Amino acid sequence: MAAPRPKIAVFKFASCDGCQLSILDLEEELLAIGEKFEIAYFLEASRAVVKGPYDVGLVEGSVTTPHEAELIREIRAQCRYLIAIGACATAGGIQALRNWKGSAEFMKYVYAKPEYIETLDKSTPISEHVKVDFELRGCPINKYQLLEVMSALLAGRAPNIPNYSVCVQCKLNGTVCIMVSQGVPCLGPVTQAGCGAICPEYGRGCYGCYGPKESPNTSSLAKRFTNLGVRKEEAVNMFRLFNAWAPGFREVEEKLVG
Amino acid sequence: MSAREKEYRVDYLARVEGEGALYVKVRDGEVVDVKFRIFEPPRLFEALLVGRMYYDVPDITARICGICPVAYQMSSVHALESIFGVRVEGPLRELRRLIYCGEWIESHILHAFLLHAPDFLGYADAIRMAKDHPEIVKTALRVKKIGNDLVALMGGREVHPVSVCVGGFYKVPTKRRLEALKPELKEGKALTKTLLSWVAELNFPSFEQDYEFVALSHPKEYPMNEGRIVSNKGLDISIPEYEDYFEEEQVPHSNALHSRIKGRGSYMVGPLSRINLNRDKLADETREALADIGFSTPCRNPFKSIIARVAETLYAFEEALRIIDEYKEPERPRVELKVRAGRGSGCTEAPRGILYHRYEVSDDGRVLSAKIVPPTAQNQKRIEEDLRAIAPQLIRLPRERATWRFEQAIRNYDPCISCATHFLRLEIEEE
Q: What is the pLDDT of residues B342-394, one digit of tens each?
């Protein structure tokens, strides 16, 4: 008798939907995924809801409201494996830029009556709230890396996701270094690979959407940027994008000033 | 709740992008309350743009929506270019249409077949629908993939592509690379014709409303990046006039700010509006295919928006093939910019309808203020009016069927709640 299919659930927190969309972008594999997994909760795709507990929970988005902070605890209790997908879930996302100013100051720009909106001062990754079993990086995630994670779950092995830098990927691709050859500031040396090193291939510097690689030397790179003529403020802002709150990128300002 | 009262509620809407809820209350056969409620957490984009350099704007605003990032890139670069006084013409302008074609294809097919079609046939989702209709779902997935391949070729990846910049592109494709995609695009065009015939045969509820359709209109082409903002009720304005004619209002029965045309009220943006106002600008094969299925315009049945979406997909394939055929590699991937202080706006046709951006920048190119009005915010008021208008024919149905049909009426608009939310006031009322 065939083993029961693992129950998978997909949850959304503060995000753009792009990472869970990557599941639907697996056009050639989507129907097979539907055969291998019981898609128990995936509201973006289905109005059918199967109650937990779930074998696998994929979480997209960051925690930005008191309600979400509650919800992620409930979800953790329901899921055997909890996997954070994408920069919002693993680092707080672009919305974590508020973390330096507090949401009150940000809120007044957007809403006429900010007092009605319940939101936390910081946008934080899932791992700041509950134990996460695996973090898949990227803004957006690489859909084939997600497929690898799902295949690994089925096979009961660890996912094979490289943690080397974008620089390594450029070498593998045979892309000439744009920082060396053209003096274009590039976050490649401190950013984890996974995107395929597309930015240097498309003529621009890496902007760090897969977040810091293991022990990144950000201060050295930021100093290099200033040597290339980038103003200090702009050098800091280069790290303040989709993984701004990730440890490794988060402290760049103090490091650069200090 | 008394016996004379009925409530229909869906606390978390499925098959829409983002977090929204539906609430309809009926008393003595009269609709007394309708809410298309948003509980998506705000991400405060307009605020986090302040202080950033202009060149970060297309990358940051793309993150408002993972389904239509190109739309955000397009509206933002056009707004910023208007401030710097440059126009992007020739092959670069064509390439912008080309990447937009890819996004229209993937977004429209995603919605039409993975999110909307299951409603018409009574399936919870497309994976279940595929068990009984494998060919249609597989064909749709194939077409969607071709759209994604086009975006990925132009921008490196399908979600949040990296090539678009203020002034043009970081890098443009060679003619040879584009030519290599032609067989796929031709296949996609042929498959989309099958999909169009299929959606035309769906069973459509009889429901029509006297909508004000709003879309861009351009003298020579089906609108994507440029044009005037027009409607079937006499609106005809330039993009910088947008805020003189449209406003956001707070209404007592809703938690959200709704866009309206000043002095008139709700309006509809999106594929149905575009096709109603620009049918004569469609390319030949799409026009013929629409005539073959007997699609008459103006179409006032919002459930038929699925036909408009697939027809626009077919057009996007025709247009992409035309652009590739006529493409001449530009000398430079982007035009020179002279950064200067100013205020400017851009409005382009996102898959879900017009997307308005307005920015103010300092003389060194730093963003001083930003305003973004996404299509879903504009459609919200109209969505609630549709729910109100369709309620009398639904309240006789069993609750589950009625609720499902209410959901379907919301999905007619392909709402993108992540887009709308940074702009909506969030306040959950106790029932």
A: 999 999 999 999 999 999 999 999 999 999 999 988 998 999 999 999 998 89
Element (H, E) at B247: strand B246-250
Strand order in the sheet with A134-136: A38-42, A7-12, A54-60, A79-85, A134-136
Number of domains composing chain B: 1
B373–chain A Cβ distance below 8 A for any pair: no
Among residues 236-295 of chain B, which lie with CB inside 8 Å of chain A? none
- Does the residue B57 lie in any domain? yes
- Angle in degrees, 0-180, between the axes of helices B134-155 and B305-326, rounded to the nearest 10: 40
CA distances to B228, B253, B424 from B382, rounded to whole Å, are 22, 14, 15
- The pair of three-digit structure tokens given for residue B30, joined into one six-digit string: 């009269």
| Domain A7-155: CATH architecture, name and number where available | 3-Layer(aba) Sandwich (3.40)
List the domain range (segments joined by +) for residue B83. Answer: 45-421
CB B213 within 8 A of CB B200: no
Considering CB atoms only, which of A16, A46, A204 is closest to B418? Answer: A16
pLDDT band for position B58 (50/70/90)?
A: very high
Q: How many CB atoms lie within 10 A of CB B363?
A: 9
Instruction: Please name which of B350, B170, B167 lies closest in space to residue B274, comparing C-alpha atoms.
Output: B350
The answer to whether ipTM exceeds 0.90 is yes
How would you list the strands of the sheet with B228-231, edge to edge? B214-217, B228-231, B236-237
Tell me, yes or no, whether B34 lies in a domain: no
Token output for B22: 């539906």
Measure in Å the smallest separation between the Cα of B86 and chain A Cα atoms. 21
**Domain presence at residue B86:** yes
What CA–CA distance (Å, rounded) separates A184 from A228? 8
pLDDT tens readout for residues B116-151? 999 999 999 999 999 999 999 999 999 999 999 999
φ/ψ of residue B198, rounded to 5: -70, -50
B179 occurs within a structural domain: yes
Instruction: Find the closest chain B residue to A237 by CA distance.
Output: B52
| CB half-sphere exposure, A10, CA atoms < 13 A | 26
B330 cis-preceded (ω within 30 degrees of 0): no
CB contact under 8 A, A12 and B18: yes
The CATH number assigned to the domain holding B331 equals: 1.10.645.10
The nearest alpha carbon in chain B to A106 belongs to B47
Helix segments in B42-133, DSSP class H:
45-49, 57-62, 69-84, 90-109, 117-121, 126-132
Question: Exposed e or buried b for every residue in B308-321, given b needs 16+ CB within 10 A?
Answer: bbbbbbbbbbbbbb
Helix (H) or strand (E) holding B369: strand B367-373
